[in-house]
Amino acid sequence: MHQPDREWIQDKLSSLTAHADELQRVGDAADEPNFGPWTALKLIVLTATVDVYTQIIHDYDFDPYYVDAMAGSGITELDGGRDTLIGSPIVAGTVAHEPFSKMFLIEQNEERAEALRDRLEFATEEIDTFTQSRDEWVVIEGDTNEELPSIPSRVRDERGGYLGGQDGQDGAHHLAFIDNERVEVEFDSLRRLSSMWGDLLINYQEKGINREIGLIESGEKDGWDEILAFFDDDAHIQRDSTPNERFELYLGKLDSINRSEYESLTIHGSDEHPYGYKMIYATRPTGGGSEYVEFMETYQRKIEALTGDDIENVLDTMKGTSTHLGLWSPDEDSQSRLGGF
Ligand SMILES: C[S@@+](CC[C@H](N)C(=O)[O-])C[C@H]1O[C@@H](n2cnc3c(N)ncnc32)[C@H](O)[C@@H]1O
Prior knowledge:
By secondary structure, this protein is α/β, with parallel strands linked by helices. It has 14 helices and ten strands. Strands 6-5-2-7-8-10-9 form a seven-stranded mixed beta sheet, sandwiched between helices. A three-stranded mixed beta sheet has the order 1-3-4. β3 (75-78) and β4 (83-86) form a beta hairpin. The longest helix is centred in the first third of the chain and has 21 residues, at 39-59.
């Protein structure tokens, strides 16, 4: 039986719960989506990614931009509001070692986009650890497949018409979080985004994709269009592909847009929801991205040993409702500052 490293999980969760209740009260999104407790593992991976990315990119003298293709409302409600964590845009704006030159945050749902704006205003004014200023983030309300391809030209406009810098220094570079719930982000959108230098952190919904393909093949669901667009309109996907072959096909597509260096890890659901998805970090074979890939190899072991049940247990402990009460006491410092990965 695996022994979860409870202290490590609690440290990471303290960062994700800090200010979450205040932020929840600020926004007014009537329809917050509901997430399982394993979602915390995804946010821990994002935290580590932003932490390492912003350190490395600084060393390489790039000018970093953050892109959130599916930004959400700024908070993450677990189990119907039983626990609340901060959402990905707040994580990114809090963990970055130096502020991003700009954060582009795309959300289709009008109420969530509005709530995200309100929460970012609040974070900018009231949360010391959130280091982006008011003109360093923008919420773009719209369909990510229309908006993602426009990001390179938006960045160019921000920089007076240039993506590259003088003598290769200060060139623009992005970290894009592609947090698919299903197969929303079409491969062609990634290709067009990737006309600018950048790294991708992709939520690859492995079990969800298998399930959808099963439903289409059995005639319970219509149409291949969305799945095909996700896999770059590659008809191989329709020819009795296995889950592994699909994943390899997707990695091959990333290779075709010069993001051939990658590391992936699996987020496990819970006993009740034996569910899972992969997080893929994809980068170019040269430069700082390779350092991130090496770092992620060690991180993978810790994350893959955990499930949503471990997260629920530790969150209960932190609220004092679990039998594990008193094993350790919350660390005040880790509540106030994200990072330290
Ligand atoms: C998994 S949630 C995002 C969670 C967020 N990344 C976080 O970690 O806090 C996915 C979000 O994508 C939005 N969404 C779904 N389809 C979209 C699309 N085509 N374009 C833009 N946003 C979309 C949904 O409204 C939802 O808020």
